[in-house]
Amino acid sequence: MTMRRAAAMLAAACAMAAALPAWADLGKLRESGTLKVAVYKDMPPFYGNAGGIDVDLAQALAEKLGLKLSLLPFPAGDDLNDDLRNMVWKGHYLGYGPADVMLHVPVDRRLMAQNDKVEIFAPYYRETLRLVRSVKRVPQFAGLDSLAGKRIGVEQVSISGMLMLGEQNGRFRDAVKIYPTEADALAALKSGDVDAVLANRSGIEAALHGDADYALEEVAFQRMPSRGWVVGMAVKKESRDLAEALQKAADELTASGEMARIFTRHGVQPVTP
Predict the structure, then answer these.
(1) Does residue 47 or residue 157 have the better pLDDT?
(2) Which residues are in the Solute-binding protein family 3/N-terminal domain (predicted)?
(3) pLDDT band of 78, cuts 50, 70, 90
(4) For the chain, counts of helices (H) and of strands (E)
(5) Which of 50, 23, 27 is nearest to 37 (CA)?
(6) Fold classified for 129-217
């Protein structure tokens, strides 16, 4: 695509967006009686075959607003900008979306600056990477050097995989085993196919339920903030009234303890952003 054509398409899209009413005007939502919430598919413990944290949160938010829930699970796109475009402010070219609100959006200044058509707000969880090891097969841990000669599981196309494969100039590359999902890597840990797994803390906690045979370790990577990343919600920029209502609902869920109960129901320790 030429730069001129790209610029023309962008200008046309902007003009169309300006001509249309807000997708998620709160008054119109109350008339319809339904809150459409976008959630990532295949992201346990936040979404899976048996529900998840984001499913329960979506239901709780809808109830707080006096609306019925319409859940819109969707597959992750190539990057977050695609997901925000498809699920928040424009809609997917295949015909689904946008939703009224999208969950599990990183509350990140750079992402906000790149996406001026959305409002990102209401952080509700801080995710971090953790190493979980078999206490029997890795009895002591004093940093990544303790994994020399051990088998390490990671999810394909993930932050954990990227970090583990590149750490110390590829020192652990031959020891890394790549699995289709985080859940598959953790299942391999339990079956003995690997000795440790680098994964999201939420996934580890939900899968292992505090089993004493496994120990959770904090690990430091130069390319990864030790405090992890915060996730929240996103609505279309013009939907300020909806954002305010959702923020109030999230605050009430936190104050009442319901937010924490949603996480603990799925085996995950709530972490205040």
Answers:
(1) 47
(2) 34-270
(3) confident
(4) 10, 10
(5) 23
(6) D-Maltodextrin-Binding Protein; domain 2 (3.40.190)
